[in-house]
Amino acid sequence: MTRYAMITGASRGLGLALAEALARRGRNLILVARQRDALEAVASELTQRFGVEVLFRACDLSEPLRISGFLLELEESDRHIDLLINCAGLRSYGHFLAQDWMQEQDLIEVNILALARLCHVIGNAMAVHGGGQILNVASLAAFQPGPWMSNYAASKAYVLSFSEGLREELRQSGVKVSVLCPGPVRSAQRLIERLASSQRVLSPEEVALYTVRALARNRAVIVPGRRNRLLTYGARLGSRWLVRKVAGAINLAYRPR
Ligand SMILES: NC(=O)c1ccc[n+]([C@@H]2O[C@H](COP(=O)([O-])OP(=O)(O)OC[C@H]3O[C@@H](n4cnc5c(N)ncnc54)[C@H](OP(=O)(O)O)[C@@H]3O)[C@@H](O)[C@H]2O)c1
């Protein structure tokens, strides 16, 4: 049975950098995102450069029925996923009441529901096969409430808490669970572009390299960047009143224009 690492949100940004870092280490991959053309281009490039098998599946993770179809396909194939990386994620920014509800719902579907469902189905398959590894991508935003991006920060707090809990639950099953909490990463997102111009921001490749090494050491909570690690301590030690005021002020200062 051929083994694969499956990565959601692998067509660009951090997911793509993680796919490349794993292909470089000889891992066969299954890539998931919505846009088929982008996935096809990534798959063909990684196969050419690293000689690994790269399969891809266009699937909108905000649509539960499409996820069901995809999971059924996986179950019927003889492909074994021994590393699952839930990287696909949506972000929203602004006054919650002014946001389009369908976008907020999609965020919850992708960031929370799809992630939990993939952990459930693929985690079960891993346990049956004697083990595997799951990496869920949260954010530095998971450590405190995030005024002006409250739904996003809350979704990432779910990912952090869920992953840490699951890690303990699955310890006996041989399934290892880690959670990645990156700070701002240089990417196509406008918010991050503004941040990148004002301070040192890690590239997706730097975050991916740090993450792959931390995964090999089975680290529970992975926070790339020394300054980011310091920020997580600040969020845990400060009073909740102060932490949410500071988080709100930072989010407002770096709002997308
Ligand atoms: N960038 C940052 O600064 C930063 C910081 C902290 C945490 N994070 C987290 O890291 C992860 C990756 O962030 P990123 O900035 O690299 O993201 P990105 O560049 O916006 O890429 C998002 C990826 O997810 C896929 N995707 C989006 N909606 C999807 C859906 N409904 N179904 C399936 N795939 C979908 C996208 O492909 P399609 O459009 O083709 O679907 C793309 O491959 C996210 O979970 C994000 O919250 C990012």
Automatic annotation (TrEMBL):
<feature type="domain" description="Ketoreductase">
    <location>
        <begin position="3"/>
        <end position="188"/>
    </location>
</feature>
<keyword id="KW-0560">Oxidoreductase</keyword>
<dbReference type="Pfam" id="PF00106">
    <property type="entry name" value="adh_short"/>
</dbReference>
<dbReference type="InterPro" id="IPR002347">
    <property type="entry name" value="SDR_fam"/>
</dbReference>
<comment type="similarity">
    <text>Belongs to the short-chain dehydrogenases/reductases (SDR) family.</text>
</comment>
<dbReference type="GO" id="GO:0016491">
    <property type="term" value="F:oxidoreductase activity"/>
</dbReference>
<protein>
    <submittedName>
        <fullName>SDR family oxidoreductase</fullName>
    </submittedName>
</protein>
<dbReference type="InterPro" id="IPR057326">
    <property type="entry name" value="KR_dom"/>
</dbReference>
<dbReference type="GO" id="GO:0016020">
    <property type="term" value="C:membrane"/>
</dbReference>
<dbReference type="InterPro" id="IPR020904">
    <property type="entry name" value="Sc_DH/Rdtase_CS"/>
</dbReference>
<dbReference type="InterPro" id="IPR036291">
    <property type="entry name" value="NAD(P)-bd_dom_sf"/>
</dbReference>
